[in-house]
Amino acid sequence: MNLEDEIRTALRRKEPSPEFTERVLARVSGMPVRRAPRPWVRWVAAMAASVLLAAGAMGYRQYQGERAKSQVLLAIRIAGGKLNKAQKRVQMLNAAHRNNS
Amino acid sequence: MKTAGFPLALVLFAGMAAGQQVKWNYDKLAARASDSVDVNLDGSVLRLAAKFLSSDDPDQAKAKKLVEGLKGIYVKTFEFKNAGEYSPADVESFRAQLHSPDWQRIVGVHGKEDGEDVDVYIKPEAKGIGGLAIIAAEPKELTLVNIVGPIDLDSLSELGGHFGIPEVEVEKKKEK
User: Fold this and answer.
1) Of the candidates B77, B107, B159, which has its C-beta nearest A76's C-beta?
2) Which of A14, B44, B146, B152 has the fewest CB atoms within 10 Å, i.e. the most exposed one?
């Protein structure tokens, strides 16, 4: 048998066996069905992501605000303390001056 | 470099035009200090902080009222291990800016016992005080304060006695 005959034999059309279709259908019915996700699942996922992002942004804003607040109180404590001290000195000097005169 | 120079000059000019914030390079002092506090709060941060200050707490409510109209608060405190680690020349560039006609020194006290000098400068404006600068120099500590915007000195002084610092009794005029 030459090469052409071998190829022709190999590529010759073969009819499937009578039970082939039943076997394939039986196999397919046993396989899990993969369906596309339902639209509401996507919406819920998107909303959950949005809520998480918003919560993160609010938390960061809260952190920034609390930090700014503590810095303002620190600055006022230092500045006011120095001013208060200077005022006290002036009052003491005034009192001493009044006592001397 | 030329392209970077123009915006920089613009920023400096804007700062000078505002004429209130005292510019000062404190890197050398910071390097020598054993401890330091550096508070830089511009208008936007002050507005944010005001939102977080409680109106129910009396001290915070006063602080809130105090900072609401301010454009900036800048405080630098340097602590040194030994006396004499900084010199008057170190703060001269800060002080020199306060010698302009815009500023007026209202208090200058020298403590013989503790060696603390405190100079208080204000920026008088038609409606009141438009800015405040304080130079408090102790042997081992130097504090520089610059508050930009309308400030109520009595409220600030009063608050200085709160938040953990014992209040100093200041004789106040009684209204008849």
Assistant:
1) B159
2) A14
Closest residue of chain B to A81, computed from CA coordinates: B160
Full domain range(s) for residue B41:
33-160
ipTM of the complex: 0.78
Closest CA to B168 of A72, A99, A80: A80
* Helix/strand/coil percentages in chain B, nearest 5: 35, 30, 35
Report how far residue B20's alpha carbon sits from residue B151's, in angstroms, rounded to the nearest whole number. 13
Tell me if residue B166 falls in helix, strand or coil: coil
- With CB atoms and an 8 Å threshold, state whether B52 touches A80: no
What is the per-residue pLDDT across B141-154, written as a single tens digit (0 to 9) for each? 999 999 999 998 88
Q: Which of A65, A75, A89 sits opposite B75 (nearest CB)?
A: A75
Residue B61 covered by a domain: yes
Contacts of A75 in chain B (CB under 8 A): 39, 41, 73, 75, 145
Number of domains within chain B? 1
Asked whether the beta carbons of residue B171 and residue A66 sit closer than 8 angstroms, the reply is no
Length of chain B: 176
- The model carries a pTM of 0.71
